[in-house]
């Protein structure tokens, strides 16, 4: 019987399976379940995935999560890039419609459409944990992130946390930190002179999350075309938003600005002005919650007029970069194929390739973010005991009772 294969042979067979099939394999065969959960196999499996030059991404479509891989092998050797549609990841719970997703260290933070719950999921290990947000006002435009603090140097003992924040009234903003290793939730109200646009997507780098932000405009201001812009970071160790961090570009209203985490080590920013077809991508050479520096040379600068002929919308343009091949992949609505998404591979010296990226579902509430994904062994701590209530005071903030 196939279930009686020698361990080495079983490991070889399982190592060839895609991530989305691992859960089914564990349920199908007790022996394979044991092999797939062994530390030796998991290390081998993840090492092979990370060694592959394919980019694995997760996207939200039809309120579900879909796995794709982007193959850029040999594009400078006259070989065509390709997209592998690996299919839909297993349902978390039947009937749950996923609206947003964030990623950190192989964990996916999924936000259902009704916004009443949050679930953290490790697709590789098949582990989940649900969290209930304190405030459940559906009118609040909430932003989310998952990260970890730097209290442990071991990647196996990281202290994961969830951030949820939203702007309330005037110059006030409230944020909440949810913990995996204890049952407390800390809500804090602070004064904020900046805001993140509703469509902006955060990027996780080394356990912290960065957003493109702009100075808050007073409600009684006249029409404004120029606004101060910068990065803001939430530091999961100090549980604070850091200072304004400089950008290599300056944007105006309706310009396209999008962030991407490069190997979880650096941050990339895509910039395209609304009144021009010129696209730039810059990459940091140092990024920390309180400091940033950018490479003096732009990673990619391309005139898109002869290649595409239209601008990427300011609320779209998810992208990936391959530093070695000096190319970017921008995922957006296809120009000439209604109801489809396209992946545009853009490189130096006029290199350009358009590939089909799948059906654009009318059920999507916004442009589907493309989340870079690498499987991990990060385990999700489960809730123990009853939830405690406490008052936490941080200097310069107003704390509220949970």
Structure description:
- With 402 residues, the chain is mainly β.
- The chain folds into two domains: 1-51, no CATH class; 52-399, Methylamine Dehydrogenase, Chain H, CATH 2.130.10.
- The protein has four helices and 27 strands.
- It has helices spanning 7-14, 22-28, 30-37, 39-51; strands at 55-61, 64-71, 82-88, 98-104, 107-112, 118-122, 127-131, 143-148, 160-167, 172-179, 185-191, 194-195, 203-205, 208-215, 229-235, 240-241, 256-262, 266-272, 278-288, 291-294, 300-303, 318-322, 327-333, 340-347, 352-359, 370-372, 398-399.
- Strand 10 and strand 11 (185-191) form a beta hairpin.
- Helix 2 (22-28) packs across helix 3 (30-37).
- The longest helix has 13 residues, at 39-51.
- The radius of gyration is 22 Å and the shape is globular.
- The relative contact order is 0.14.
If helices are DSSP runs of H or I spanning 4 or more residues, what is the number of helices? Answer: 4
Radius of gyration: 22 Å
Report helical residue fraction.
under 10%
The proportion of residues in beta strands is: 35-45%
Mean pLDDT: 80
Alpha-carbon distance between the two ends? 55 Å
Biggest sheet statistics: 5 strands, antiparallel
| Unreliable spans | 388-402
Q: Note the overall shape.
A: globular
What is the name of the CATH class of the largest domain? Mainly Beta
The total beta strand count reads 27
Order of strands, main sheet, comes to 8-9-10-11-27
CATH architecture assignment name of the largest domain? 7 Propeller
Secondary structure category: mainly beta
CATH topology assignment of the largest domain: Methylamine Dehydrogenase, Chain H
How many separate structural domains? Answer: 2
């Amino acid at each position: 019987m196939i279930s009686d294969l020698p361990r080495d042979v079983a490991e070889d067979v399982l190592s060839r399976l895609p991530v989305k099939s691992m859960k089914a394999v564990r349920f199908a065969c007790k022996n394979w379940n044991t092999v797939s959960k062994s530390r030796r196999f998991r290390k081998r499996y993840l090492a092979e995935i990370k060694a592959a030059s394919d980019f694995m991404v997760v996207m939200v479509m039809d309120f579900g999560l879909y796995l794709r891989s982007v193959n850029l092998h040999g594009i400078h050797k006259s070989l065509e890039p390709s997209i592998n549609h690996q299919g839909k990841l297993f349902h978390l719970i039947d009937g749950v419609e996923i609206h947003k997703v964030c990623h950190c260290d192989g964990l996916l933070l999924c936000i259902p459409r009704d916004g009443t719950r949050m679930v953290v999921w490790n697709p590789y290990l098949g582990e989940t944990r649900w969290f209930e947000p304190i405030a459940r006002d559906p009118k609040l435009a909430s932003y989310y992130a998952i990260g970890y603090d730097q209290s442990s140097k071991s990647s196996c003992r990281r202290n994961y946390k969830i951030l949820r924040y939203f702007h309330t009234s005037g110059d006030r903003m409230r944020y909440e930190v949810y913990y995996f290793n204890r049952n407390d939730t800390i809500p804090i109200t602070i004064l904020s002179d900046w805001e993140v646009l509703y469509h902006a997507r955060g990027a996780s780098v080394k356990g912290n999350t960065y957003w493109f932000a702009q100075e808050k405009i007073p409600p009684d201001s006249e029409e404004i075309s120029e606004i101060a812009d910068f990065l803001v970071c939430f530091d999961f160790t100090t549980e604070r938003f850091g200072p304004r961090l400089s950008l290599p570009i300056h944007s105006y209203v309706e310009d396209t600005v999008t962030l991407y985490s490069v190997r979880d080590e650096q941050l990339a920013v895509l910039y395209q002005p609304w009144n021009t077809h010129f696209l730039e991508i810059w990459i940091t050479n140092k990024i920390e919650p309180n400091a940033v520096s950018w490479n003096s040379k732009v990673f990619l600068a391309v005139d898109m007029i002869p290649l595409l002929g239209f601008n990427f919308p300011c609320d779209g343009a998810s992208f990936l970069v391959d530093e070695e091949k000096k190319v970017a992949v921008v995922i957006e609505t296809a120009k000439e194929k209604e109801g489809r998404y396209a992946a545009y591979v853009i490189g130096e010296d006029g290199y350009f390739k358009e590939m089909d990226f799948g059906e654009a579902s009318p059920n999507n509430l916004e442009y589907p973010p493309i989340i870079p994904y690498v499987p991990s062994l990060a385990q999700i701590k489960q809730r123990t005991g009853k939830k405690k209530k406490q008052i936490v005071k941080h200097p310069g903030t107003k704390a509220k009772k949970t």
